[in-house]
Amino acid sequence: MADTPLFQTTIAGSLPKPSWLAEPEKLWPRWRLEGEALVSGQRDATLVWLKEEEDAGIDIVTDGEQARIHFVHGFLERIEGIDWGKKTKMGIRNNRYEVEVPTVTGPVRRRGPVHSEDLRFSRAHTRRMLKIELPGPMTICDTIADSHYGRRADMAMAFAKLLNEEARELTELGADVIQLDEPAFNVFMDEVKEWGVAAMERAVEGVRCKTAVHICYGTLGSEWRQYEEIFPAINQSRIDMVSLECAGSKVPMSLIELLKDKEIMVGAIDVATNRVETPEEVARVLKSALKHAEASRVYGCTNCGLAPLPRNVAAGKLKSLAAGAALLRNEVGRG
Question: Is the pTM above the cut of 0.85?
């Protein structure tokens, strides 16, 4: 650990799919290939982004979720007990959006490994530390309808068991960090404390690599202090790292102090704009976190996934992220 550089960089997860693989700049793109050609195209796209991340100077790389049509449904597609033909209209993220979603109609279980081949391929093609993302159990339950379990907490625990099976396998295949994506944590404050953190812990139980949770900051009000309710519970959990959106966020940076026992992935890249940040801007965001957390606990990260952005913009943001972290690293070293 003594040789580990300060302010290591990573991304929250997704990266844009090349236009020859899927529709560009969409959260739910349609594939442009089929069958074996699709699998081959996904592998090619993974290679492109691993190389882009390495060239940019990203320390902990990901596959950019090039084999997933969506960060949640990419996992659910391999799960039994879900009727994809039975669509249910429901509000998600506390009714911020209304969409038609598939329905759980029976006990859920994996048909087999879900992302193992993706991880195995990436591990064979990079020597960098490698992170892979899984949807968190609370967010899964907020993205799918239930006509079997009856209680959202019960369904979350069922999915947490499957996620744990998956996470343990991914660790054995060489994952260095396994991240649960939990945007639902920013809207269901009471449920997070009642059963959301417990489900998250069940999902990473016994996982031997570093574990992380990514939480979106939401869009409500001029100052978002709702995290004060859930950060203490997250700080007491067995999760190792917390990924937060800090660039352009309405969340006071001081709330990081409530996560005093966690490593913090500080989002210093705004994914809601096509403007590429300067390294200096990235360094300023990361430096502001140092008022509330030791440098050894601070990582540089994107706010969220980069999938909907133009490919050249995402590549530029990766370079700025790594360059900004390097600027601050040099400054702290001189200090």
Answer: yes
Residue 148 lies in a domain: yes
**What confidence tens digit (pLDDT) does each residue in 275-319 have?**
999 999 999 999 999 999 999 999 999 999 999 999 999 999 999
In a domain, 157, yes or no: yes
Tens of pLDDT, residue by residue over 226-254, are 788 899 999 999 999 999 989 987 778 99
Q: Is residue 11 part of a domain?
A: no
Task: Specify the CATH number for the domain of residue 173.
Answer: 3.20.20.210
On whether residue 16 sits in a domain, the answer given is no
- What total of structural domains would you count in the chain? 1
Output the 3-class SS for the chain: CCCCCCCCEECCCCCCCCCCCECCCCCCCCECCCHHHHHHHHHHHHHHHHHHHHHHCCCEECCCCCCCCCCCHHHHCCEEEEEEEEEEEEEECCCCEEEEEEEEEEEEEECCCCCHHHHHHHHHCCCCEEEEEEECHHHHHCCCEECCCCCHHHHHHHHHHHHHHHHHHHHHCCCCEEEEECHHHHCCHHHHHHHHHHHHHHHCCCCCCEEEEEECCCCCCCCCCCHHHHHHHHHCCCCCEEEEECCCCCCCHHHHHHHCCCEEEEEEECCCCCCCCCHHHHHHHHHHHCCCCCHHHEEEEECCCCCCCCHHHHHHHHHHHHHHHHHHHHHHHHC
**Which residue range(s) make up the domain with 156?**
35-334
